[in-house]
Design a protein that fits this description.
The structure is a single chain. With 185 residues, the chain is an all-beta fold. The protein folds into two domains: 59 residues, no CATH class; 115 residues, Immunoglobulin-like, CATH 2.60.40.2030. The protein has no helices and 15 strands. The chain has a five-stranded mixed β-sheet, with no helix packed on it. The termini are far apart. The relative contact order is 0.20.
Amino acid sequence: MFETLRSTSHGSIGRITTSGFATNYTDPAIDSPNYITAGPDGALWFSNGGFVDPSADSIGRITTPPPTVVPFGGGVSESATGTSQLDITVTLSQPSTQIVTAQWNTVFINGASNAQAIPGTDYTPASGTVTFPPGETTETVPITVLNHDLGMPYKLLVVSFHNPTNGIMGGYLGLGFGFLINNTS
């Protein structure tokens, strides 16, 4: 399956990815686009003009902004014993034609509220890389929760996302949040 590139009108070029994501690029400098192709870097290349005045032929390039990695969060109810998995959801603002990655790790903030989950007691500290294959916009990262009575209704776990490749970091300072919900009573 191939993505579709099309001239939509004077001053405009449209792009529809294989996953169905449509974008329209508008610029008065796009006169009469003739041939359009996607470059290996994701940029759109096109021949421009020449219908009225062949001496006005030119080649244009439209660079597409990189997708934004946006951490969200997740929640899990704890039981009295054993472990469970808390999935932290991470999204991209738009599909990409390239693999997009970001590094992540759990974070303990010294001096924060006692509602913050404690590494080694409430969860197993973890780190890794979240990877978005081309066209994918949602992934999760797993955190192992150490089930026990939290002594309060919930605890909050913080996950830092950073160092993206083929994308930029978004969200609230690149942070995702997980809720451990006490379900032992």
